[in-house]
Q: What sequence folds into this?
């Protein structure tokens, strides 16, 4: 796939900071040109966190589209619990300051690797029923 390869890793935690085993994570995003695939749903998919709440997403850095800064949509849900619907953002993007949905608490921790790929981390805190 065209674009900058990005690997996001992190943990799903409950509101006491405890790992949430088997949390559902459903990600969707634009491609590197800022386009969503609303026919075949490339770049949309779900996974489950492991027994310790850890997840890994292998994707590409999303492109810009009109009116928005770079972002990745995500729904995160502990088993049998309410769904958290949120977005992840990228540091250093000029459009962040002009995006009404942008929230600095939702910034990925991004590291640029020597091979041109990027690695990022983000931990989610979700409600548990
Ligand atoms: Fe979007």
A:
């Amino acid at each position: 796939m065209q674009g900058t390869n990005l690997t996001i890793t992190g943990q799903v935690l409950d509101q006491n900071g405890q790992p949430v085993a088997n949390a559902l994570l459903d990600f969707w995003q634009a491609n590197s040109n800022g386009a969503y695939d609303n026919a075949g749903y490339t770049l949309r998919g779900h996974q489950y966190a492991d027994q310790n709440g850890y997840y890994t997403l292998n994707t590409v850095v999303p492109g810009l589209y009109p009116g928005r800064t770079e972002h990745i949509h995500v729904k995160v849900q502990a088993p049998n619990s309410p769904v958290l619907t949120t977005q992840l953002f990228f540091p250093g993007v000029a459009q962040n300051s002009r995006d009404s949905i942008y929230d600095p608490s939702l910034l990925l921790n991004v590291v640029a690797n020597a091979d041109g790929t990027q690695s990022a981390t983000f931990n989610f805190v979700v409600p548990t029923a």
About this structure: The chain is about 0% helix and 40% strand. The first strand starts at residue 5 and ends at 13. Residues 68 and 99 are 6 Å apart (CA to CA).
